[in-house]
Amino acid sequence: MKLLTDLLSLSFRCSNTFAKVEGIADVIWKTQRYHLVREYASHPVLPPPLIVVEHAFRLILAIVHKLKNQKKNAKQSGKSRNRTFSESDCSIFARVCFGKHKENRTGSASKN
């Protein structure tokens, strides 16, 4: 019996099948281990009667995180409102507005 298993092992190693199967088995094992660790990490730490305390703590953390994000977004939007324009930006804007105004006046004059 030992001889047959040795021959089988030898045939797998010679045909490179053993290396392929071992590589796939390693990937499957690592994936399953990852899912197991994630499952245990997501479970609450406290026993069932005290889970309410943990949920309240998580709720407070979520509220604080949301308030920080809102404050951060308000600061960023405030910075964009206080933009200063250069002289060239103003002159380009004035030319565009004046050109549109001139087109509107000539268009209304031709209709009369």
SSE diagram, text form:
Layout: H1 2-14, H2 17-42, H3 51-81, H4 87-111
Please state the overall shape, judged from the principal axes of the Cα atoms: elongated
Q: What is the H-and-E element order?
A: HHHH
Overall helicity: over 70%
**Which parts are unreliable, with pLDDT below 50 for 5 consecutive residues or more?**
none
Rg of Cα set:
36 Å
Q: Which class do the helix and strand fractions yield? A: mainly alpha
Q: Give average pLDDT, whole number.
A: 78
Q: CA-to-CA gap between the ends?
A: 110 Å
How much of the sequence lies in strands comes to under 5%
Biggest sheet details: none
The total of beta strands comes to: 0
The number of distinct helices, counting runs of at least 4 residues, comes to 4
Describe this structure in words.
The chain is 85% helix and 0% strand. The chain has four helices and no strands. The longest helix is centred in the middle third of the chain and has 31 residues, at 51-81.
Concise account of the structure shown:
With 112 residues, this protein is mainly alpha-helical.
List keywords for this structure.
85% helix; 112 residues; 0% strand; elongated; 4 helices; mainly alpha
